[in-house]
Write a structure and sequence with these properties.
The complex is a heterodimer of chains A (333) and B (253).
Chain A lengths: L10 H7 L3 H17 L8 H26 L7 H17 L4 H26 L3 H20 L4 E2 L5 H7 L3 H6 L8 H18 L1 H11 L1 H6 L4 H27 L1 E2 L7 H11 L11 H20 L6 H23 L1
Antiparallel strand pairs in A: 1-2
Chain B lengths: L10 E10 L2 E11 L4 E5 L6 H8 L7 E6 L2 E3 L4 H6 L2 E4 L11 H5 L6 E4 L2 E4 L1 H14 L16 H14 L4 E5 L7 H16 L3 E6 L2 H7 L2 E6 L2 E7 L5 H9 L5
Parallel strand pairs in B: 3-10, 3-11, 6-9, 9-10
Antiparallel strand pairs in B: 1-2, 1-4, 4-5, 7-8, 11-12
Helix pairs in contact in B: 4-5, 5-6, 6-7
Classes of the chains: A mainly alpha (333), B alpha/beta (253).
Chain lengths: 333, 253
């Protein structure tokens, strides 16, 4: 078969084929737009940027797990409820003088276990995860209400463990004026690096793409698709728990309704970040970009002097546009 | 080939029964593939071809019946086990993941890794190089091993699946409807790869309902109708027309 070996593709084409091409272009476009239209040049300032980043970290952590799950063609609508579960366990234990280590473990592992339950129900019943987790998110919040008696946790005590998970970076703020970053930024970046590596450089990551891209082919080559999906649900639960731990560390308060709707923000960020709703394609770096884009818009709407209620509509429009744009780029590439 | 002159069949399936609930998809089917033989497995839609192959590849373990490989009784409870025994399947839709690259597909489930202590990661350069070499070895030239499989034509996809099977030491290659969606030129390529595979010592099961395609390459034809074996015919015993009649039941044996 004499097919001439074509030369490798030109750089622009290769860039467009990358899963982060769409979100990167969107990020640049949104930045340029807001830089021009936000009055008094307040957008590209350290103060605004650190605010945008801080507002993105919690959703960012949740979005990483959601992205992994969406790549293997599953959803987790219970992620928001699991953030609340993590925040309650961690907050409750630390406030009552319990061991910080125990608090962190409980805040991570219990949501992880509940994630495993999501996966188990999905796999055993064959019911789509969209429905399974629509049910479990209500169950998890109701259980939280019953077990906690519906109280709101609140503390003013500053514990070292709170500073570790979401303290202000005072040194940095002193060195650079208005750089109000928090330690949550490092947790987010750490998780992005870790899961980007897992996704594109490990066997498990390869199998996540295969499980979502063509489960039949994955099974035929000996990939245990159910095990991969179960792991995806557990990771999503663990990361939601971590977001809960970070949330309580920052605000030192948690209610039953904490992080309501966070799962939808995360799905929106994943889609804006180039993850396909139909599975098989996506990226953790893209998820990070998606979260930043939405956070920028949220801040931008306020800075432009629009009533902040408009934020919801702006995000809605962005999601639709970004999804259309990402699909269009893929077809072009 | 060390196998030449060896007349123990590669695979012998004996009295295979497979039921799904109350439906009997396969009823007491016997099926043999000899060394270096291309067998055309024919039957109408729903006749049981696919079920028979799924029994052989561990997707649906049989309700009853025995499977021998090289004369030895084996159990094939999972696709992984089938592969370990040297049975490779190229399903038309199930062989490859369109959104993944050629080399990631090539090594799916058998990825090459490097490790440092407990941390293991994919050896992507090595997988790219080996995939390219293995495909070149059977006459398939690819543009780039990083190219997404979804961009390839149907014939190219089949050829990648065939190249992969050969690279991983398959003894028996199963091609499930490899040509049904292909143009004439692409079909010709796939048939050429099939004969290449046979020349290199593999046995091939070629599943199709297109008699014309399989007639060119098969040594023997096995026909299934409504879950039962109609018969097995050497190429010189039957014409294309005979086979077509046997498939539809126009003619009984």
């Amino acid at each position: 078969m004499t097919k001439a070996t074509a030369k490798s593709k030109p750089a622009p084409r290769r860039f467009l084929e990358s899963p982060i091409a769409g979100p990167l272009i969107t990020l640049v476009a949104v930045t340029i737009f807001l830089t021009i239209f936000v009055p008094n040049n307040t957008f590209l300032t350290m103060r605004t940027m650190s605010g945008i980043v801080n507002a993105a970290t919690l959703t960012g952590i949740v979005t990483i797990g959601i992205t992994l799950l969406m790549i293997c063609d599953e959803f987790d609508l219970s992620a928001g409820a699991l953030v609340a579960v993590g925040a309650f366990l961690y907050g409750g234990i630390t406030m009552n003088g319990g061991s910080p280590l125990l608090a962190v473990l409980a805040g991570l592992l219990v949501p992880g276990l509940l994630g495993a339950l999501n996966g188990f129900l999905r796999i055993r019943t064959g019911i789509p995860s969209f429905i399974v987790t629509l049910g479990t998110q209500a169950i998890y919040r109701a259980a939280l209400y019953v077990l906690s008696g519906g109280i709101m946790l609140q503390t003013v005590t500053e514990l070292p463990v709170y500073k570790v998970f979401n303290g202000r970076l005072v040194g940095l703020a002193n060195a650079i004026p208005d750089a109000n970053f928090r330690t949550s930024l490092f947790w987010l970046l750490g998780m992005v690096v870790l899961f980007q590596f897992i996704l594109v450089r490990t066997r498990f990551g390869n199998h996540i793409f295969a499980a979502g891209g063509n489960p039949g082919a994955a099974k035929a080559t000996g990939v245990n698709v159910n095990r991969i999906k179960l792991m995806g649900f557990i990771i999503s639960g663990l990361l939601a728990g971590l977001a809960g731990v970070m949330l309580f560390s920052q605000y030192k308060t948690a209610r039953i309704a904490t992080a309501t709707g966070e799962e939808l923000n995360a799905i929106a960020a994943a889609v804006v970040g180039g993850t396909l709703l139909t599975g098989g394609s996506g990226s953790v770096v893209g998820a990070l970009l998606g979260v930043l884009i939405i956070s920028m818009l949220r801040t931008g709407v306020v800075l432009m002097g629009l009533p902040s209620d408009n934020f919801v509509a702006v995000v809605g429009v962005t999601i639709v546009l970004a999804a259309v744009f990402n699909y269009w780029i893929r077809r072009k590439a | 080939m060390s196998n030449s002159g060896n007349d123990t069949p590669v695979v012998r399936m004996e009295s295979i029964v497979r039921r799904f609930g109350t439906i009997t998809a396969l009823n007491n089917v016997n099926f043999v593939v000899n060394q270096r033989e291309v067998v055309g497995l024919l039957g109408d839609n729903g006749a049981g071809k696919s079920t028979l192959i799924k029994v052989l590849t561990g997707v649906y373990p049989p309700t009853s019946g025995k499977i021998y490989m090289d004369g030895k009784l084996v159990e094939i409870p999972t696709p992984r086990e089938a592969r370990a025994l040297g049975i490779e399947t190229c399903y038309q839709d199930l062989a490859l993941v369109p959104l993944m690259s050629i080399s990631r597909n090539f090594f799916l489930g058998r990825e090459l890794t490097r490790s440092l202590g407990p941390i293991k990661w994919l050896n992507i350069p090595e997988m790219d190089a080996q995939a390219r070499e293995a495909l070149k070895d059977i006459g398939i030239h690819i543009r780039s091993p990083r190219e997404k499989v979804g961009r390839l034509s149907g014939g190219e996809r089949q050829s990648i699946a065939i190249g992969r099977a050969r690279h991983f030491g398959a003894r028996l290659l199963i091609l499930d409807e490899p040509t049904s969606a292909l143009s004439v030129g692409e079909t010709h390529k796939v048939l050429t790869y099939t004969l290449n595979a046979k020349e290199r010592g593999l046995s091939v099961i070629f599943i199709t309902h297109n008699v014309g395609h399989v007639y060119q390459v098969a040594d023997r034809f096995v026909i299934i109708r409504r879950g039962e074996l109609v018969g097995s015919y050497a190429k010189d015993e039957v014409s294309e027309k005979d086979i077509a009649d046997l498939i539809t039941g126009e003619r009984e044996k």
